[in-house]
């Protein structure tokens, strides 16, 4: 009798959590509402560096930063059209792997941005030193500001 009471109590507790329980026939049944998605499945990111470039500035590299693990690049571009008849690309962002030194650096990713807005580029697992170069590409845009944030998974 005590074993049967334990099984019923366990089934009631699990049913309240939306878990699968077994009936007397042994067939599984789901009761209650489904459990919410685990927050452990969501990735947590921390900012490694932020780089801001304004139209009219020469293309320049960000300060060097280090990555060791999954990373992503987020960007925000603001600009107003200067020539509404023909709008060419507004900005270019280059993600550069410095490898051992600046002379052997390799451009790993180039992001061409056609219109103002926001975006994210997954960079995958990275290990090493990197820089970013940003250019306000088009004469067809004015007051262009490009903000790039590099984040790494915690």
TrEMBL record:
Keywords: Signal. Residues 1-22 form the signal peptide. This is Lipoprotein. It comes from Mycolicibacter senuensis. The lineage of its organism: Bacteria, Bacillati, Actinomycetota, Actinomycetes, Mycobacteriales.
């Amino acid at each position: 009798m005590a074993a049967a009471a334990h099984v019923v109590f366990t089934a009631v507790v699990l049913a309240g959590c939306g878990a699968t329980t077994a009936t007397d026939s042994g067939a599984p049944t789901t009761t209650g509402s489904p459990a919410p998605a685990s927050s452990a499945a969501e990735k947590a990111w921390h900012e490694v560096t932020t780089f801001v470039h304004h139209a009219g500035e020469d293309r320049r590299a960000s300060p060097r930063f280090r990555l060791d693990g999954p990373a992503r690049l987020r960007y925000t571009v603001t600009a107003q059209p200067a020539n509404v008849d023909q709008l060419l690309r507004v900005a270019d962002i280059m993600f550069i792997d410095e490898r051992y030194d600046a002379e052997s650096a390799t451009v790993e990713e180039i992001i061409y941005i056609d219109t103002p807005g926001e975006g994210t580029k997954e960079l995958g697992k990275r290990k090493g030193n990197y820089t970013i170069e940003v250019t306000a590409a088009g004469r067809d845009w004015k007051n262009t500001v490009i903000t790039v944030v590099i984040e790494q998974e915690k």
